Amino acid sequence: MFLHTVFIITLVVLQSCVSYARVAPDYITPCVGLKSACLKKNIQETIPRFVKGIPSLAVNSTDPLTYDYVNVELPGGLKIEFKDGVLKGLRNCLVNEAKFQNNDADVELTCNVTIKGKYKAQGQILIISINGDGDAKLKITDLNLKIKLKFIDNVRDGVTYYDVKDYKVNYNINGKVQFALTNLFKGNPELGQTVLTFLNENWKLVDAEFGKPLVDIVIGIAFKNVQKFFSNIPKDELVVL
Description:
Blueprint: H1 2-19, E1 31-32, H2 36-50, E2 65-74, E3 78-88, E4 94-101, E5 104-125, E6 128-156, E7 159-173, E8 177-181, H3 189-201, H4 203-232, E9 239-240
InterPro entries: Haemolymph_juvenile_hormone-bd, To_sf
GO cellular component, one term: extracellular space
Protein name: Protein takeout-like
């Protein structure tokens, strides 16, 4: 009888440990009352660790953020293929603002990012026709991101999770964009360099014409990780009201 009782107690203790085992990484600290100052501080401290990835939650690295292949047709019939893409710099983003109210979150970041990869492009950029195939590097400084997240409570197996129902990102470049593209015109490096100089001098026009579709693709890749993160961590490990 004594051994039976000990066995039952052991099962209860083990079950309690399983039920209340912390899922979130140790560096995730809930903000009491969801106060903006706490949220801003926590997000700032979390970013450099989060972007490395969380294998236990199937959250991949976002710095570097890699994507094998992107194929997009932009305004004016410009067709771009981008392979072996790598984005770096998110770990150093600065948090300007963070708010959470009524299951809606607003976060504003300032980042400097670099994107590298192999490209193929054919079509027209502004007033110039191109036919390029080579290496690409884009450097963006003072990229301002305003992020809105809409959450819903999702109860699974008696545990409440925050699921990202929708998100919206607006961006503005307060610094500049620098392009480094090889072989913009196949077999004509002089013309390619002339066009590259034109693109760098008129980066604002290029961004206004083509920036949003490309930024949306990268953000879509990154937010898959954000959605995985929230869908796997219980709400009570993130929020203390």
